[in-house]
Amino acid sequence: MKYVLVTGGVVSGLGKGVTASSIGVVLKACGLRITSIKIDPYLNTDAGTMSPFEHGEVFVLDDGGEVDLDLGNYERFLDIKLTRDNNITTGKIYQSVIDKERKGEYLGKTVQVVPHITNAIQEWIERVAMIPVDGKEGPADVCVIELGGTIGDIESMPFIEALGQFSYRVGPGNFCLVHVSLVPVLNVVGEQKTKPTQHSVRGLRGLGLTPNILACRSTKELEDNVKEKLSQFCHVPAANIVTLYDVSNIWCIPLLLRDQKAHEAILKVLNLDRVESIALEPKLDEWVARATIFDALQDTVRIAMVGKYTGLSDSYLSVLKALLHASVDCRRKLVVDWVASTDLEDSTAIEAPDAYKAAWDLLKGADGILVPGGFGDRGVQGKILAAKYAREKNVPYLGICLGMQIAVVEFARHVMNLTDANSTEFDPDTKTPCVIFMPEGSKTHMGATMRLGSRRTFFKVADCKSAKLYGNVTYVDERHRHRYEVNPDMVPEFENAGLQFVGKDDTGRRMEIIEIPNHRYFVGAQFHPEFKSRPSKPSPLFVGLVAAASGQLDRVLQDCCNGHVVPAKHILSNGSYPSIVHQNGHPKKLANGLSNGTYYANGNGVHA
């Protein structure tokens, strides 16, 4: 097993996750099998109880693991299925060591950070690296490890020490360290400054780790003299210093690494550069095509995202990525209008009339409406109003998890005239409980007590839109994360009133997908389809939303029924095959783009 460690210096948020994912893509394109591990130094056992404002979205895996959003990047980029053990936290490590101590496995010794914690970290890495994640038998060839946080953080110290020991243990030729750092440009002088990276590398070396490759984040490509200076002071060959400058879209990052021969440097460090079965030129045609398509898109589709955490786009990262995959598949340029659900409520009309008007203007100007998952009662009334507007005005609507539940509540209130209808999450004493607490849930323990992971949904209505979008299969496996569900005792009343429950679990008691048949596109899913969306395999329900919002749903449904769907990687909107994504030999730049592919919002929506 070979290991590639990705660390970060100077500041957080440099895009270590995207860099690690892109390294995996390039190595995979050389013919290697890749697995990934993310190390998060926080004390939480997992990300399940953390607020999206604290750490971005909680990504859910097939096995029910609630993990860091970077594992979502790994899965999307590498098209793999990771396990909960691929996310290491300080909490998990300490818990495992303390459990062993309680069982007497340390034979009365004093349990210390070194060697017990550091050994536990190394053993965890070695064990998890051997688990196949690509559907094939046997372990992967290379394990890409990302160390979260920034070099120098006190909580990272046990991991730094463990990884230093680990690099010595596996030996030269089996361990490559890629350090992601910042090379800022000061506006006053317009010069690329190397001192932050120098100090970061010096700190890393002082902790027992020496970088083999520097990946420098900057607004533009590093100048040759800057590379030479970094090489001299950081003791890294100039050929091993790559620039991750701002590009137009996230799919250009693997191309940046390829064009700067980063794969050759990594293969050389890992003694893989002379293995006959490994290609020295990565095959990235699909990535070139996708990046080209994205840059060529002109016709827009506007999707209103109605949620609580609109101030931080990472809170809905997988939803944004799924929308992006679907919009590229439908040949539309995605514009996401962030709508704070509280701004749609009547109380805001009195307290902040300008915010109220702006929110409703965005909602009414959208081609489609999406209400993502969430917890708690803040902003729920605004989400209900958004669902009501979509239903009454025949605007394409997709509700995910809570978004489906509030659509059911809205239907009960305004179609069935059950004015006191509600979810017991928001009103435990409601006389018309449309949404109820699941019997196996826990109201006292919050961590890992939900219905989590991959569960099977069976289609009960063969000619519904959802079944057609999935290719007329009889069932689908999607990932869940919820405590509440539609009250099965009320299902006959809903169906008599015109709301179809087209997807259910194997017992028929759990409602998974809803539709309104005579609506352009009104779909709700109890599961989270965004977690399994891939650039080359966009989520069908998201494709349905974007297709309906751009007037293409009938064609898409017909193509799905006939099995004639053409992947986005093959054609442009004019029917031609894309051949280039470069400008002057490099991926095309975007002045204000973010190379980590995140989104920022203003009054005009969302931009990549």
Automatic annotation (TrEMBL):
Gene3D superfamilies: 3.40.50.880, P-loop containing nucleotide triphosphate hydrolases
Top-level class of the enzyme under EC nomenclature: ligase
Keyword terms: ATP-binding, Glutamine amidotransferase, Ligase, Nucleotide-binding, Pyrimidine biosynthesis
SUPFAM superfamilies found in the cross-reference section: Class I glutamine amidotransferase-like, P-loop containing nucleoside triphosphate hydrolases
One Pfam family it belongs to: CTP_synth_N
Domain Glutamine amidotransferase: 313-546
Record flagged with keyword ATP-binding: yes
UniProt pathway annotation: Pyrimidine metabolism; CTP biosynthesis via de novo pathway; CTP from UDP: step 2/2
PROSITE patterns, A to Z: GATASE_TYPE_1 (PS51273)
GO terms, biological process: 'de novo' CTP biosynthetic process; pyrimidine nucleobase biosynthetic process
Entry-linked NCBIfam families: PRK05380.1, PyrG
Protein name: CTP synthase
Source organism (scientific name): Panicum virgatum
